[in-house]
Write a structure and sequence with these properties.
five-stranded mixed β-barrel, globular
């Protein structure tokens, strides 16, 4: 299910999935921004530590952040090993969920320096929270789309907020006024394509690992 962006969309979609399908495992998969230097687009993280901080960045502080655990360390390492055994490279890490897009380099770096997190998004904490409250094991898988130094054009942010037609028009207008950015936008489109492929491959690896574990558990019983 594609939830859409933000807290309410993530919570509503999670509740629908839990009520309709009664899953034994819930996987939250998506894109994230990196808050660490030298992390390339396409880097995949299995996030067993989740953070959230609400409100506007001007008022953020370590005291306002809340931390939770999606997977215990043993289970997280087990999934990481299964993914890596399938020739993928997956890092264990931590993700912070925020209320808005963060595409400013300085703010990204500030988050990375002040919180024990690797990436940021707008949904994972809320998906995990609803699943955990229903006693459903859950996994957060995030692939880096934009590294620290990359600033997303404003119309891309708008398009991601489901204002597609408006976003496309602004994109065309932006390219008309800033033809020098066409190369940057093309590069971003390639990043999106590559990140989608990496996310899909790692998601499939997790599903296969879980299916194998279920079969082994049934055999033991």
């Amino acid at each position: 299910m594609e939830s859409g962006i933000g807290k309410s969309n993530a919570e509503n979609a999670t509740k629908i999935i839990l009520d309709r399908y009664k899953p034994s495992l819930l996987i939250s998969a998506g894109f994230a921004g990196s808050v660490k230097q030298s992390i390339e687009p396409g880097t995949i993280y299995l996030c067993n530590s989740l953070w959230v901080i609400e409100g506007t960045p001007a008022f953020w502080s370590t005291e306002l952040a809340t931390q939770s655990t999606s997977l215990d360390q043993t289970t997280a390492l087990k999934f990481q090993t299964s993914i890596n055994d399938m020739s993928f490279s997956c890092k264990l890490g931590s993700c912070m969920t925020v209320d808005q897009f963060v595409y400013n380099r300085d703010l990204k770096l500030w988050i990375g320096e002040n919180f024990a997190v690797d990436v940021i998004d707008m949904e994972s904490f809320w998906v995990s929270k609803i699943a955990t409250e229903s006693d459903i094991p859950n996994i957060v898988l995030r692939v880096v789309l934009d590294p620290v130094g990359q600033k997303l054009p404003p119309f891309v942010v708008e398009a991601a907020k489901n204002k597609k037609s408006r976003g496309v028009l602004k994109g065309l207008r932006h390219m008309a006024l800033n033809p020098g950015d066409i190369k940057t936008i093309y590069k971003l489109s390639l990043q999106v394509r590559r990140s989608r492929k990496i996310l899909a491959e790692n998601l499939q690896a997790i599903i296969e690992a879980q299916q194998t574990a279920d079969i082994e558990s049934s055999t033991v019983r």
